[in-house]
Each structure stands twice: as C-alpha cells, then as structure tokens.
C-alpha cells in the first residue's frame, strides 16, 4: 500500500495543488493508494484518474477539495473508451466546492447539446465503462450537479454514502446511473439532495447523457432523507428499465418518493419499465412541500409514487408501504392518462391522513390490466379521501381485507369487463 503522506508533490495544506502528486501515486502501479488525514485538506485542480485493479482508500475524515474555479470533475477512471475493471474507492470527504465553480447548466445555457466528455458537468465522481466498481464509506459534498455519475457499469456497488449538500444549486443529484448498466447495488444513502437521491436513467438529457441503454437487475436498498427532493427516479425514453428492486426508503420528500418518467428527453421514444418491486416505504411529504391554492390545483406530478405518460409498466408490486400525512394531500400512487400498467399489486399498505384535506391512495387516469389490493388500512383523522379514484380503465380488480375509516372505497367507479 502506498501512503501519500510523504509522497513527492503531496502536501495537504489546502494551499498547494496536490493533483500532480496524487496522480503520480495512482500512476505508480500501486494496487492501493492511501490518503491519511492531511494537515488541512488535499487540493486538486484536475480529475484524479484511477487504473484497473486499483483501490483508492482515504481516511473517513480526509477532505479532498476541488480548487476554486477549477471547473473539473474530481475522480474518474482512466480509460472511458475501452473501459477498466476492479476499481474501488473507499473513504474521504469529496468536496466539490460549488460556490466557486460554474458548469454550463447553471450558466443558463441550453442542455439540449450533445454530450461532450471535455465539458464540466459539475460531477464529483464520474465512471464510464467499469466492471466491478465499488464506491463506499464516503461523503459527497457540495457538487455543482451530481455527486456520482456512472454509465456502462457492470457489477457495481455504491454504498454507505453520506450527502452533505448546501442546496445552493437547483440540480444536485446524489447517485446518477445511466444505461447500459446492470447487476448493481446501491445501498445505505443518507442526507438530503436537491434533486434525485438516486436516478436510474436508461436515457437522459443530451448534455448529461454520458451513455444510454437498458438498466437491468438493480437493487436500491436503504435511503434515509428529511426534506429531500425525490428518493428514486426511474427514467426510460427509448431504453427499458428492467428488474429493479427498491427497498427500505425512509423520510420526507418535496416532489416524489419514486417516479416513473420519460420527460421527452428523446421525443417519441417509448417509456418501458419491467418487473419493478417497491417494498418497505415509510414516507410523507416534506413540511415545506409547496402547498396548492386552491386545493384542486394539487399537481399529480407531486404524488408519492408517480407514473407519468407514456410509461408502460409490465409488473409493479408495491408492498409494506406506510404513510402518515400532515403536509400535503397528494396521491400515494398516481397513474397519468396515457400510462399503462399491465399488472399492479398494492399490499400491506397503511395510511393516516392528518393534513386536513382529502386525498387518494390510488388515482388511475390511465390503464390498468390487473389490479390487486390486499391488506390495506386507511384512516382519516381530519379529512378523508378515496381508496381508489378511477377515471381511466381497469380491466380486472381483486381486493381483500381492505378497511377504511373516513375513506370512500371508490370501487363503484371501476368499469366491469363484459
């Protein structure tokens, strides 16, 4: 293991640029490069580039800070063209110093321009074409945009991450994964972000589209956040999102807990989601979520789980879902007109409405093939609501053990199949 404490060109006093020394350590052929707590912090002005079969380990409290006006990403892999294997990043506080950086997005320039690898996107860590990537036990602090961005990832783990964001930018994602990526685990994330805590974007906007393709076989497990933006965004605009499990999501969110989106980032392209499981959600709206006046203006896009058109979802299971609402009467699950869910199951669901205004548990404006509602308990303490508000089409429905105090069942509006 190479310890950089006495390595040429590495001072760690927060004044001298440590980039050349740290990169020389990574280029030395050492399988493990260790960054102890420096006298002040490591200062870098260009991306550090990791090689295959290499581990970068920093003390948990070692700060690596981007120099003022560097306008660079902080950490990446060396070969985006052919790819790398077996890269591990452990520890450290990676500080993007966003008050002294500016990316094109925040300069007001159009994001509808082709992806350019030379463009500074405001990303702390960016990895492209890596097999066996692990990023763990570290803090991502104050990026211009994303804390982590990855594409073309195979067999990857991102876990035990703390977000320490100053919220001074309006698009501060946490973990942002592009397709094609598969066989990944994202786990144990803590702290609020000012955009998606986790984004699984098979396709994306042009400026940020590092890569695009299917996202398959992904587990997201353990998100903790108060006053966050969205816990998990799933986005498909041409490429499918398949076999994704989202479990153990806690906290309060201003926009969504989970969203199924297209956003017309590639206009006319299909939005396809296959075999999605959501389990273990304990949520409510953030206390400063924007109130709507009059109540009829509550926007469906702020529902806890939002399926936007033209999404086609083959199978969606939502179980062990619990909400106590005091802030905003948005739907628990809203399916937009033009969206289609072939098989939908709601199971082990509890809702306590304390926000003083009626709300819906499921509001369907699209099309549902098979709907199962099992073991659902809803209670209104100040205002009621509707278990199922259907203004779209449902072909078949099965319900069992549904109890509602102060809620209407709403099932009489379900069209029966002849």
Blueprint (SSEs and pairs):
Blueprint lengths: L1 E2 L15 H9 L4 E4 L6 E3 L3 E3 L3 E5 L4 E4 L8 E3 L6 E7 L2 E3 L29 E17 L6 E17 L10 E4 L2 E10 L5 E6 L13 E21 L5 E21 L9 E15 L19 E3 L3 E15 L7 E3 L4 E14 L5 E6 L2 E14 L4 E6 L2 E13 L1 E2 L10
Parallel strand pairs: 1-2, 2-5, 3-6, 4-7, 5-8, 6-9, 7-10, 8-10, 9-10, 10-11, 11-12, 11-13, 12-14, 13-15, 14-15, 15-16, 16-17, 16-18, 17-19, 18-20, 19-21, 20-22, 21-23, 22-24, 23-25, 24-26
Uncertain spans: 292-296, 412-418
Structural class, please? mainly beta
| CATH topology descriptor | Pectate Lyase C-like
Q: Quickly give the CATH architecture.
A: 3 Solenoid
Q: What is the overall pLDDT average?
A: 94
Q: Helix count?
A: 1
Short note summarizing the structure:
This protein has one helix at 19-27, and strands at residues 2-3, 32-35, 42-44, 48-50, 54-58, 63-66, 75-77, 84-90, 93-95, 125-141, 148-164, 175-178, 181-190, 196-201, 215-235, 241-261, 271-285, 305-307, 311-325, 333-335, 340-353, 359-364, 367-380, 385-390, 393-405, 407-408. The chain has 418 residues and is mainly β.
Describe this structure in words.
With 418 residues, the protein is an all-beta fold. It has a single domain (35-109, 124-413), classed as 3 Solenoid (Pectate Lyase C-like), CATH 2.160.20. Helices cover 2% and strands 53% of the residues. The protein is built from one helix and 26 strands. The chain has one helix spanning 19-27, and strands at 2-3, 32-35, 42-44, 48-50, 54-58, 63-66, 75-77, 84-90, 93-95, 125-141, 148-164, 175-178, 181-190, 196-201, 215-235, 241-261, 271-285, 305-307, 311-325, 333-335, 340-353, 359-364, 367-380, 385-390, 393-405, 407-408. α1 links the parallel β1 (2-3) and β2 (32-35).
């Amino acid at each position: 293991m190479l310890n950089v404490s006495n390595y040429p060109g590495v001072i760690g006093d927060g004044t001298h640029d440590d980039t050349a020394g740290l990169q020389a350590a990574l280029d030395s052929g050492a399988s493990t490069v260790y960054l102890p707590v420096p006298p002040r912090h490591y200062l870098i002005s260009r991306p550090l580039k990791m090689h295959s079969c290499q581990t970068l380990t920093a003390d948990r409290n070692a700060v690596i800070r981007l120099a003022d006006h560097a306008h660079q990403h902080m950490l990446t892999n060396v070969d985006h063209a052919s790819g790398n294997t077996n890269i591990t990043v452990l520890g450290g506080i990676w500080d993007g110093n966003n008050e002294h950086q500016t990316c094109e997005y925040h300069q007001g320039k159009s994001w509808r321009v082709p992806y350019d690898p030379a463009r500074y996107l405001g990303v702390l860590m960016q990895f492209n074409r890596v097999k066996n990537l692990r990023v763990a036990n570290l803090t991502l602090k104050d990026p211009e945009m994303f804390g982590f961005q990855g594409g073309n990832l195979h067999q990857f783990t991102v876990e035990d991450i703390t977000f320490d964001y100053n919220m001074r930018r309006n698009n501060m994602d946490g973990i942002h994964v592009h397709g094609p990526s598969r066989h990944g685990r994202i786990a144990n994330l803590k702290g609020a972000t000012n955009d998606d805590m986790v984004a699984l974007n098979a396709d994306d906007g042009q400026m940020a589209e590092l890569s695009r393709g299917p996202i398959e076989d992904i587990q997201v497990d353990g998100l903790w956040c108060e006053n966050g933006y969205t816990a998990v965004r799933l986005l498909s605009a041409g490429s499918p999102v398949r076999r994704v499990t989202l479990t153990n999501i806690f906290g309060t969110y201003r926009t969504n807990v989970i969203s199924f989106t297209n956003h017309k980032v590639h206009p006319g392209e299909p939005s396809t989601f296959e075999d999605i499981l959501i389990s273990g959600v304990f949520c409510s709206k953030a206390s400063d979520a924007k109130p709507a006046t009059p109540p009829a203006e509550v926007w469906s896009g702020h529902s806890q789980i939002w399926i936007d058109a033209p999404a086609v979802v083959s199978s969606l299971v939502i179980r062990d879902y619990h909400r106590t609402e005091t802030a905003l009467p948005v739907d628990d699950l809203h399916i937009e007109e033009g969206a289609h869910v072939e098989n939908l199951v709601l199971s082990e669901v509890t809702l306590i409405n304390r926000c003083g205004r009626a709300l819906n548990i499921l509001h369907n404006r699209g099309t549902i093939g098979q709907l199962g509602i099992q073991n659902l308990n809803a209670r209104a303490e100040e205002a009621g609501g509707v278990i199922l508000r259907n203004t779209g089409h449902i072909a078949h429905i099965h319900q069992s053990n549904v109890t509602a105090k102060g809620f209407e069942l709403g099932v009489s509006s379900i069209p029966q199949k002849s």
